[in-house]
Amino acid sequence: MSLVLRKVNIKLILGLLVILNFIDLMLTLVLFEKKLITEENPIMDVFISFNSLSFALAKLSLCYFGIYLLYKYRENSFSIYSSYCLVGVYLVILFRHIQIITCLL
Hints:
This protein is mainly alpha-helical. The protein has 4 helices and no strands.
């Protein structure tokens, strides 16, 4: 894969991570407030138990810091592969949220 193509791909992938993270945040807050899910991440569970704003700030801060690090080290193949894996993880989480929502309909 050429260096130019890798840079374009990593920017698109990281942009997709930003979008998926925001969608996950919104769906998690809605489903949690309706008591349809629990937060499985023990660190984030502390924040969501406190209040929605602290959860949102912590999630956005931690995720965007991680995305910044992935971008900073975008020349490293581990960063590139990690970015693709994270998109996969967020897609699984998104599909799980959708599954829960469709069960309510």
